[in-house]
């Protein structure tokens, strides 16, 4: 894990105000959630501007009605992280559709009280993942695409403009 930590430190050296805190939290999360990977990519904001940011992308295990489902997510860390909350999205695969609801909009962005009430150091990525898993277990953010529909065409109003660079 030391190799990953050094790679993250180098990647975040330019631009991240609280690099050491951010790296420690990323390592903590990817140690607990093996399917989440740190990826550096271009995030496009609502105003059209973009910035190279770190994200954690992959799946989190969610229990729903006795079964475990791997929900694909992308959590973007602003360069002011951890003093500003992450920007979080559900990223459906081609066989899934977003299910807008209480905590997820039609674009897949999710809104949780935990994010709204973000206060470091009490608020962190590991607890965010745990809250997300509990909330998604009550109200899943995606569902299987009916087989009669055409596969999902990736449309992004925000998020990476390219595949990004896996860090590790």
Structure at a glance:
The protein is α+β, with helices and mostly antiparallel strands. The protein has one domain (about 1-145, about 160-165): Ubiquitin Conjugating Enzyme, CATH 3.10.110. It has four helices and eight strands; from the N terminus they run ααβββββααβββ.
**Main beta sheet strand tally, sense and closure:** 6 strands, antiparallel
CATH superfamily: Ubiquitin Conjugating Enzyme
Structural class: alpha+beta
Computed Rg:
16 Å
The low-confidence parts are none
- CATH top level assignment: Alpha Beta
Mean pLDDT: 90
What level of helicity do the residues show? 25-40%
How many structural units, i.e. domains?
A: 1
Helix and strand run? HHEEEEEHHEEE
Strand content: 25-35%
The span between the termini is 9 Å
| Level-2 CATH architecture | Roll
Pfam families: UEV (PF05743)
InterPro entries: ESCRT-I_UEV_domain, UBQ-conjugating_enzyme/RWD, UEV_N
GO molecular function: ubiquitin binding
Protein name: Tumor susceptibility gene 101 protein-like isoform X3
Kindly list the characteristics that best describe this protein.
alpha+beta; 4 helices; 6-stranded antiparallel sheet; Ubiquitin Conjugating Enzyme; two-stranded antiparallel ribbon; 168 residues
Structure description:
There is one protein chain. With 168 residues, this protein is α+β, with helices and mostly antiparallel strands. The chain has one domain (2-147, 158-166): Roll (Ubiquitin Conjugating Enzyme). The chain has helices at residues 2-12, 19-32, 113-116, 125-138, and strands at residues 37-44, 50-64, 67-77, 87-90, 96-98, 142-144, 159-160, 165-166. The strands form two sheets. Strands 1, 2, 3, 4, 7 and 8 form a six-stranded antiparallel beta sheet that branches. The protein has a two-stranded antiparallel ribbon with strand order 5-6. The radius of gyration is 16 Å and the shape is globular.
